[in-house]
Amino acid sequence: GRGGGKGSAVELPPGGVAMAAGCFRRSIASQLSKVLDLPPENLIKSISAVPVSKKRHVADFQLSIASIIENSSGDCSAQDLHLQAQQLAERLQCDSVVSAISAGPGTVNFTINRELLAKTVLQQVWKDGSEYGVKSELFSTVPRQKAVVEFSSPNIAKKFHIGHLRSTIVGNFIANLKAVLGHEVVRINYLGDWGMQFGLLGVGFQSFGNKEKLKSSPLQHLFEVYVQINKAAEDENTKKLAKDFFRKLEEHDEQALSIWQQFRDLSIEEYIRIYKRLGVHFDEYSGESFYQEKAQEVLKMLEDKGLLQKTIKGTGVVDLSEKKDLSTVSTVMRSDGTSLYITRDLAAAIDRMNKHSWDTMIYVTDKSQSNHFQHLFQILKLMGYDWAERCQHVSFGLVQGMKTRRGEVVFLEDVLNEVRSRMLQNMTSTKTTKETQDPVETAEKVGLAALIIQDFRGLLSSDYQFSWERALQSRGDTGVFLQYTHARLHSLEQMHGNAELTDVNVSCLQEPDAISVLQHLLRYDEVLHRSSQDLQPKHIVSYLLTLSHLAAVAHKTLPVKGSAPAVAQARLCLFHAARSVLANGMKLLGITPVNQM
Ligand code: ARG
């Protein structure tokens, strides 16, 4: 029969097609469906893998009674639920997949045949590789979509603050997640490349600019010029010159435009180089400047639709109040007829729909812009664009206290350099650190992992206090720990040769610490599913931290070295599977796993 006697090897079915881990859920659901007389599809959602805890090995899956009787009889007491669980458990039978059934408070618990569990999980990880968990039936009902993800979006010549960093890593995560789940993703950087700052920069560059410096480090130089000219701009004459320069830009004066173009091009070049260090790329750098004229068309459309109202001051507003009494308005036009931030955003949203016909569009910024996006979506709705409902603002909280040796964060590059040098210092001061081929590169990747994990551990909406020390701890729930675990598992494989799945004896993987790892691997699809629903990376983060802890324990108690060949091989397979899923999850979060540190 299935599962076989003791000592059976994994038999890969012909063609190497493995049994899906989801098969367990389906198999349980089909038995339940006969007893409960409900379609199995409705039951699958109520069956979940049991999180590995201290009271481990209770079971592998559980059915929540409350979730299946939801609609039938209304509220149930805890006692009721327990009773129902017991009654249901009694009516179910073990089979070739399920080896034990029990009732808990409000749940029916299922234990999977031990060897089948090991065999299935390992096969699945092998077969699906970087798509492990993604092909789960949990996603089978989700249609393939096209998603626009707009993130990072710094302003040229202004500070790249921590909010931009957060937007960059959160947006990258969301785009990665959508892409791995099979959706088409367009990554857009909505650069702040227009506005009065370019009037000031144009004038400032004449007095304080240096062509060499602009070429070698444009972001830094433009920022310096901007700071200097801002001081000078207290004088009325400079102010006037800056205004004139910006007016020239708006009127497409060729000379002014070519200066602006140079500022923009050189800045983008440098951004691309720095984003690369972060492992981030964009499909489009279409910033605010691109929507300058289209914003005028939007004003025209608003006027035609009777949505644009003039105030006494001459500005143009859209009435967003329910009672249409102008109690909530959004200003879309200055008194001189020029557009505002929100007008350009209206133009950008409409343009992206025309260009990409996306199914969802996600904007990633800090929560201070929540009102802005609410207004934006409301106006689109009023304009008759039903797709406004498919726009989403993913907002995040504020981060306090991030300082580098140079002081307050002004450039993204400062943060990257700081985390790299701090990590390098930590690495050279700990004796356990092995000789690495490229310590600087390793320090950067480990340091970035530390930043990302610190940022992703909590709910995105919560504020937190930044701490280099906490982020860079080698023990505890940090990115350093994830990287360390990955490197250790990798070197294990290096030392003992690659694991071969075909001749693995799964009966060698029955120790509690091995089972814990397997049970945890079984849950990966559910965790991905949760993050895909609420777009919170924290589910994946805590999953990977637990995986690392479990793998570290197993690494200690289940040695490969000195074990009988069959045992050693089986353990290598287990560790390979753990490392593979760890690497998948890390990449999803925007972390590049290191092989040694
Ligand atoms: N450049 C803006 C800022 O730094 C962020 C842009 C956000 N995206 C948008 N479509 N408005 O505050």
UniProtKB/TrEMBL annotation:
GO MF: arginine-tRNA ligase activity; ATP binding
Reaction catalyzed: tRNA(Arg) + L-arginine + ATP = L-arginyl-tRNA(Arg) + AMP + diphosphate
Uppermost EC category: ligase
Gene3D superfamilies in alphabetical order: Arginyl tRNA synthetase N-terminal domain, HUPs, Isoleucyl-tRNA Synthetase, Domain 1
Statement: the UniProt record of this protein carries the keyword Membrane: yes
EC number: 6.1.1.19
GO BP terms, alphabetized: arginyl-tRNA aminoacylation; mitochondrial translation
Domain of life: Eukaryota
Entry-linked InterPro entries: aa-tRNA-synth_I_CS, Arg-tRNA-ligase, Arg-tRNA-synth_N_sf, ArgRS_core, DALR_anticod-bd, Rossmann-like_a/b/a_fold, tRNAsynth_Ia_anticodon-bd
Coiled-coil stretches noted in the UniProt entry, renumbered to this chain: none
Keywords associated with the record: Acetylation, Aminoacyl-tRNA synthetase, ATP-binding, Ligase, Membrane, Mitochondrion, Nucleotide-binding, Protein biosynthesis, Transit peptide
One Pfam family named in its UniProt record: tRNA-synt_1d
Biased composition range(s): Gly residues: 1-7
A single Gene Ontology CC term: mitochondrial membrane
Domain DALR anticodon binding: 482-597
Main location class: mitochondrion
Function text: Catalyzes the attachment of arginine to tRNA(Arg) in a two-step reaction: arginine is first activated by ATP to form Arg-AMP and then transferred to the acceptor end of tRNA(Arg).
Similarity comment text for this entry: Belongs to the class-I aminoacyl-tRNA synthetase family.
Protein name per UniProt: Probable arginine--tRNA ligase, mitochondrial
UniProt source species: Junco hyemalis
